[in-house]
Write a structure and sequence with these properties.
- By secondary structure, the protein is an alpha+beta fold.
- 48% of the residues lie in helices and 21% in strands.
- A hairpin with a 2-residue loop joins strand 5 and strand 6.
- Bound molecules: 2'-deoxycytidine-5'-triphosphate and magnesium ion.
- The site of 2'-deoxycytidine-5'-triphosphate (DCP) has 15 residues, from strand 1, helix 1 and strand 3.
């Protein structure tokens, strides 16, 4: 078996913590969020309150209309954060890699530590038992061959649930006739788009693959794969407290005026970011441009992008951000890839199928590198390893600054 993954998700997390700490609330419909006379929404509701139709993100007035006898309470985030750390500490002990998705949710890669499916079953039971005994809270656990399946499995028997999906065949059998929204990454918007095209179930996706790809592009390719149970994404060790971006910046010896040179530097920085991201196997879904002007005033501009680490794409996005800033003398420029995840593998597979993307981006990167070298009389392509050593990058850019034309 390639991977064995556990997905854990606490039941009605904020509400359960409050009930645990105040037993008088037990058995009553509890709504955590705004209070009925305030503006705002429901953060979460106890399962008793859900029976009235109350759910997360619902307008609080609507919730009050549905459940006037409920107990309404503001959230206590500090408390939930503290509990979250205790939870993750228990769970992490069973995994070689753990990926924190939310305060109350994580993917655990138990492939190596368990070594077999049977032992992973023991781990899953242990996680439920210890979470209850040590923290007096219930969670739902999914055990599966992939991240998507593990997530679906943990939702399957909520609350206090446990469910297994050992193989892709099991997964497909389970979801085949369910709404497309069962697939990870299908939100309201995508769901509607597919529905309008008459694609309602996972089965429809399998039967209308070309249509799905035409409608949704890369995401469509991902969905058609998923509809066959294919999901090779790894559990990426991730903790929101850890660094969230890979970036590179440079401070010039002398302030720089004029866009063409800044863009050349930006491209070089993007290349460096691509290399770093590749080394740690990460892609990002955000690009941030950072500028400090000569007067020390600093700005950052960010944008969400489809998962990538391509220098060319990074550069083009950052260039777009730069074009929309004031053209004043610049002291520092930087670019970073943010919202990191391990989707490199997935991404490459998309591109292979679509015959564009990665290969095209790589071609563009190489061509841009060649043009850059010609502009400054430097052999970048043959020297990249050296150029990107931090001291050399700095000196190379200074050399470029002095030898720029225009
Ligand atoms: N949350 C929020 N606003 C949302 C969704 C969630 O503030 N729109 C908060 C409150 C939840 C916590 O995040 O308690 C965890 O979110 P979940 O989606 O896991 O929901 P619950 O744990 O509350 O319930 P479930 O048993 O369905 O997992
Ligand atoms: Mg939860």
């Amino acid at each position: 078996m390639d991977q064995i993954i556990i997905h854990v998700d606490m039941d009605a997390f904020y509400a359960s913590v409050e009930i645990r700490d105040n037993p008088e609330l037990r058995g009553r419909p509890l709504i955590i969020g705004s209070l009925p006379h305030e503006r705002g929404v429901v953060a979460t509701a106890s399962y008793e309150a859900r029976k009235y139709g109350v759910h997360s993100a619902m307008n609080i007035k609507e919730a009050y209309r549905l459940c006037p006898n409920g107990v309404y309470m503001h959230p206590h985030f500090e408390k939930y954060r503290a509990v979250s750390q205790q939870l993750h500490a228990i769970w992490d002990a069973y995994a070689s890699a753990s990926e924190t998705i939310a305060l109350d949710e994580a993917y655990l890669d138990v492939t190596q530590m368990a070594g077999s499916w049977e032992r992973a079953q023991v781990f899953a039971r242990e996680i439920k038992r210890r979470t209850l005994e040590e923290l007096h809270l219930t969670c739902s656990v999914g055990l599966a061959y992939s991240k998507s399946a593990a997530k679906t499995a943990s939702e399957e028997k909520k609350p206090d649930g446990y469910f297994e999906i050992p193989t892709a065949e099991d997964f497909v059998r389970l979801i085949l006739d369910r709404d497309v929204r069962v697939l990870l990454t299908v939100g309201e918007k995508t769901g509607e788009k597919l529905h309008r095209a008459g694609i309602r179930t996972v089965r429809d996706i399998r039967e209308k693959q070309q249509e799905v790809v035409r409608l949704l592009g890369k995401q469509g390719v991902w969905l058609t794969r998923l509809a066959f149970g294919e999901d090779h994404r790894r559990v990426t060790p991730y903790n929101p407290q850890d660094a969230k971006s890979i970036g590179r910046e440079v401070t010039f010896q002398e302030d720089v005026s004029g866009r063409p040179f800044l863009k050349d530097v930006l491209f070089l920085l993007a290349l460096s970011v691509e290399r770093r991201a590749a080394r740690v196997g990460l892609c990002g879904e955000g690009v941030t441009l950072k500028l400090t002007y000569a007067d020390m005033k600093g700005i950052t501009r960010s944008k969400r992008v489809a998962s990538t680490r391509s220098a060319w794409t990074l550069y083009r996005e950052a260039e777009g951000l730069l074009d929309r800033t004031a053209d004043r003398p610049v002291r520092l420029i930087g670019v970073s890839l943010t919202h990191l995840s391990d989707q490199a593998y997935r991404q490459l597979r998309f591109e292979d199928i679509l015959h564009d993307g990665a290969a095209e981006e790589e071609k563009e990167t190489q061509a841009a590198l060649l043009r850059l070298g010609e502009r400054y009389g430097l052999d970048f392509a043959g020297n990249l390893d050296k150029v990107f050593r931090s001291d050399t990058l700095y000196r190379t850019i200074e050399y470029m600054r002095r030898h720029r034309k225009g």
